[in-house]
Write a structure and sequence with these properties.
3 domains; 5-stranded parallel sheet; 17 helices; 44% helix; binds 5-phosphoarabinonic acid
Length: 454
């Protein structure tokens, strides 16, 4: 079970009930209706992804699990890796009885080299995921992987080590797939990277890792179908989106998602990308400059109580909070009773760690509320594939509705293009432009701004 409690967003310095529109509000209904229409016309696909048929994926993965493979190396970045990473990090050991999974996203040469040195190419399946098929980080690592496998098993036998997940028609990887006999799966062309966790992008690596993808999909489907009617959707996702937008209008432009469960840390990383890349936009749909967005920040309880909470309590009132709370943990410990326990700590004796953890969450949330900071809570009864699936779908919906209400395109990311062009340009892709000037650090143009520290 997963519940979203927004009561803490209301009150003293937060929202007032009378200001926040209900599900009958015209703008909210229009936003949801537009999403539904775009889904029906086939332009948008994410709302259909909980219906991805898992049987063929499962059957294919099961076949691989009966072969010689011991590990999978997943190469992809952003929306092509964060979903599987998030779900796997939420999983219990019992949910990972498949291949050992390593995800190569960052291009840090030391990390990448360590992976290729550690894994055995003879028993590693390489899963390369890129919708565009041209992402420099992914394709660089893929090319290294190609050579690495070919060197170990020979060109003839290399093809069966590769699984490609890419656009059905476009991109360099698709062209390569057409030339080779690799396993391949499609990223639906109407589903963007950060909305693709419930397509082969997330499901193939998860199934190979032994994760129950049927339950993940079922959780997402339940969340969607429970609020599928326009009235329900407007009242649930629509009002939730409106709450965020009204908080932002009121000056709360940073959303701290604070998890009190280590297993949910990956979900916070996944959420950060979804929220930032979808809603951080320069222009609205009319091309007018708006520079909008709500900055997502990751925090982890309890460690960040000893790191960030001072700022959150007393710093600028520009942050609001979304807690991830778990009611029942799968493992626990009891703090033993002892005659030597100092009096000041005696109240801890006989307490379960989960009780202490819960008290710390309530303490932090209560203290933030006391200092006038709006809070909401995602309450997982337990962390299960179903509750994780429901969480993923809920945030996709809230983000998409918020994008509609903001009148921006939540499904593109023009802001990351220039950086990519400069990087490719510096590496020699386009010799007609002077990329070195664009890449120069601002400090290099000043005289007094570089501090020699060593
Ligand atoms: O959400 C997105 O669309 C992006 O984060 C992409 O997933 C990311 O840039 C990787 O792109 P690609 O899958 O084309 O390699």
């Amino acid at each position: 079970m997963l519940r979203y409690d927004t009561s803490g967003l209301y009150g003293r310095d937060g929202l007032t009930k009378s200001d926040v529109p209900g599900g009958d509000d015209e703008q909210i209904r229009k936003a949801v209706e537009q999403l539904y229409q775009r889904t029906e016309s086939g332009e948008l696909g994410f709302m259909d992804t909980p219906d991805t048929s898992f049987e063929p994926i499962q059957a294919w993965a099961d076949e691989r699990l009966h072969e010689e493979w011991k590990a999978q190396l997943v190469i992809g970045i952003g929306g092509s890796s964060l979903g599987a990473r998030a779900v796997l990090s939420s999983a219990l050991p019992a949910h990972k009885r498949g291949l050992d999974t390593y995800i190569a996203d960052n291009l840090d040469p030391e990390t990448v080299d360590r992976l290729f040195s550690f894994l055995d190419p003879k028993t590693t399946l390489v899963v390369v995921i890129t919708k565009s098929g041209t992402t420099v980080e992914t394709m660089s690592q893929f090319w290294i992987a190609r050579q690495w496998i070919a060197d170990a098993v020979g060109e003839d036998r290399a093809d069966r080590h590769f699984v490609a997940i890419t656009d059905p028609e476009k991109g360099e990887l698709r062209k390569l797939v057409d030339q080779h006999r690799w396993f391949d799966f499609e990223v639906p062309s109407n589903v963007g990277g950060r909305f693709s966790v419930l397509t082969p992008v997330g499901l193939i690596p998860l199934a190979l890792a032994g994760y129950p993808i049927d339950e993940l999909l079922a959780g997402a489907r339940d969340a969607r179908d429970r609020h599928r009617q326009l009235d329900d959707a407007a009242q649930s996702w629509g009002v939730a989106a409106a709450e965020h937008l009204m908080l932002a209008e009121g000056g709360y432009q940073q959303l701290v998602m604070m998890t009190y469960a280590d297993r949910l840390q990956g979900l916070v990383d996944w959420f950060r990308q979804l929220w930032a890349e979808s809603l951080g936009k320069a222009k609205n749909r009319n091309g007018e400059l708006v520079n909008v967005g709500i900055t997502p920040i990751k925090a982890v309880g309890v460690v960040d109580q000893h790191s960030q909470v001072q700022l959150y309590m007393e710093g600028p009132k520009n942050k609001y909070f979304s807690f991830l709370e778990v009611e029942q943990f799968e493992r626990d410990r009891i703090i033993p009773e002892s005659p030597n326990m100092p009096d000041a700590l005696a109240h801890l004796q006989g307490r379960r760690l989960s009780e202490v953890f819960a008290a710390e969450l309530k303490g932090t949330r209560g203290a933030l509320a006391e200092s006038g900071r709006p809070t909401s809570t995602w309450r997982f009864d337990r962390i299960t594939p179903r509750s994780v699936g429901a969480f993923l779908f809920s945030w996709q919906m809230i983000t998409a509705v918020a994008g509609e209400m903001m009148d921006i395109n939540a499904f593109d990311q023009p802001g990351v293009e220039l950086g990519k062009q400069i990087a490719h340009g510096l590496l020699g892709q386009d010799k007609t432009r002077k990329f070195a000037d664009l890449a120069r650090s601002p400090s290099a143009t000043g005289t007094k701004t570089v501090l020699q520290v060593l």
